[in-house]
Write a structure and sequence with these properties.
single chain; alpha/beta; elongated
Length: 495
């Protein structure tokens, strides 16, 4: 439980400064007093905080005792002092903005949650010399995968003295289908400069029994799993099966999705790199459109269920005339439709740039019965190419309504170019913090968690929470309104 009370008067009074004339000081003091009078209504407000339970190996391994003090005590590059090690009472609040008005609706229970703060603990539950680590990357590519691998290896080696570190090849199926690859800092030294994942990856191949059998057979007692929401759901099952078998194995997830659709955490690694690269595609589309008579530059960006890349790239570019994302519907024909809007833009500017997320408009594209049933290796519905479909529909529209006028559509799909590049500087740093946070947590005996930033502070979040949470664009907040104010696009709501 946390209570919010007014600040001490001396704190604000001191901010007025001692150099002001007495009359001005009195005026400022009156403003301070008025401020407190306004705050009185909130002084008794109490907010109840629920701390999310973080699984620990000692919960099912009753005889488990700490292996000793944290090796960082002896690390020449660290000088642990008061506050260096994280205490069990250190928490990160999920919600940090509240409306304390008596007339405001009560926040939902999820807004009152807190998570354990990430970071090193005073004692560890794994003897470094006896620790065997498995690192695996699953799902699609994302900028920063190699950085995560590198920082896990270097962090385990340099911070905790772990020497038995192995990479699992080709995703989940690699646990039972191939031999692990031994890793060390020298081997991974330059991996952060490379795109993709040196360990290779794949979708599917999740066989719970064979995976956990292989982990147990090879003697791994720490497993670090990097992947998206589907991978995190698999990690939950691995953690639960390990706990059911009472195995001395810690499991940590590092959420990866270039779409930024993982919930709870502030953002996913690789997202900022993706937005940066997407702007290059938008710039090229703008040049093509501007150089043609009645030219339209059409860019399809990643985003199956969320439009974060399209949204942020649109805001950053300022060259986009219309942004279409999965969270909003649109239509082509009629008053207020896409064609009417684009025709007006072409009359005004002679060109237009259209950005569409891959998951937008899927319900508008005709599908055969076979296509309605088609699924990928992860079990997701296979999306049709909304970019190619839009290009075709735009040409049909123009040929029908303007048969004797020039018209050009240049379609750019930078999907694989964006996914395959190395992480930029911001994402590289972010990957380091994610990896080291995960290491600190597992070495402290925690398991079944994900490390990630919440409101700018790193926390440990139960795997089950992350596997179920989605981060969709809120089309009712100021950010989407900002997009529409930049593009001047309609809301595509039929009257």
């Amino acid at each position: 439980m946390a209570s919010l009370s007014r600040p001490e008067a001396t704190n604000l009074a001191a901010a007025s400064g001692s150099q002001n004339p007495p009359q001005k000081q009195q005026q400022q003091q009156q403003e301070v007093n008025d401020h407190f009078e306004a705050d009185e209504a909130f002084s008794s407000t109490t907010i109840h905080i629920t701390l999310k339970k973080l699984p620990h190996l000692s919960e099912y391994l009753q005889d488990l005792q700490p292996a000793g003090p944290n090796p960082l005590d002896r690390n020449p590059f660290f000088h642990p002092s008061d506050g260096f090690y994280i205490a069990p009472s250190d928490v990160i609040l999920r919600q940090i903005v509240y409306n304390l008005s008596e007339t405001s609706p009560s926040p939902s229970p999820s807004q009152h949650l807190a998570y354990h703060r990430a970071g090193p603990r005073k004692h560890i539950f794994f003897e470094p010399s006896a620790t065997r680590v498995a690192i695996v990357t699953c799902g699609g590519l994302c900028p920063g995968l190699n950085t995560v691998i590198r920082e896990l290896v270097v962090g385990l080696w340099d911070l905790y003295g772990v020497r038995q570190i192995y990479g699992i090849k080709a995703g989940y199926r690699g646990f039972y289908s191939s031999d692990p690859v031994e890793l060390n800092p020298k081997m991974v030294h330059n991996w952060h400069k490379r795109g993709g994942t040196v360990l290779e990856t794949s979708r599917g191949g999740f066989d719970l029994t064979r995976i956990v059998d292989a982990i147990e057979h090879r003697g791994f007692n720490q497993v670090y799993i990097t992947g998206g929401d589907g991978t995190m759901r698999g990690a939950v099952k691995i953690f639960e099966e390990i706990r059911r078998r009472n195995l001395y194995i810690g499991v940590a997830g590092i959420p990866k999705t270039v779409d930024n659709d993982v919930g709870i955490i502030d953002r996913s690694f690789g997202f900022q790199t993706a937005v940066e690269m997407a702007q290059e595609a938008i710039h090229a589309a703008h040049v093509e459109a501007e150089s043609a008579v009645n030219g339209i530059g059409l860019v399809k960006l990643m985003g199956r269920s969320t439009g974060h890349i399209a949204l942020h790239a649109t805001l950053s570019s300022r060259d986009v005339d219309c942004c279409l994302i999965p969270e909003t519907e649109f239509y082509l024909e009629g008053k207020g439709g896409l064609f009417e809007f684009l025709e007006q833009r072409l009359k005004e500017n002679g060109h237009a740039v259209l950005v569409v997320a891959e998951g937008a408009g899927q319900d508008l594209i005709p599908r055969s019965d076979a296509q309605k049933q088609e699924r990928d290796e992860s079990g997701n519905l296979v999306f049709l190419d909304v970019g190619s479909w839009l290009k075709s529909e735009l040409k049909k529209w123009w040929d029908r309504d303007h048969p004797h006028e020039l018209f050009t559509v240049k379609y750019i799909d930078p999907t694989y170019m964006i996914r395959a590049v190395p992480a930029n500087a911001t994402d590289n740093l972010y990957c380091t913090l994610l990896a080291h946070s995960a290491i600190h947590g597992v070495m402290a005996g925690y398991t079944g968690f994900v490390s990630g930033p919440i409101n700018g502070n790193y926390a440990y979040i139960p795997l089950t929470d992350v596997a179920q949470a989605k981060n969709e664009v809120n089309t009712k907040d100021h950010q989407w309104a900002w997009v529409r104010s930049v593009t001047n696009q309609p809301d595509f709501v039929k009257a």
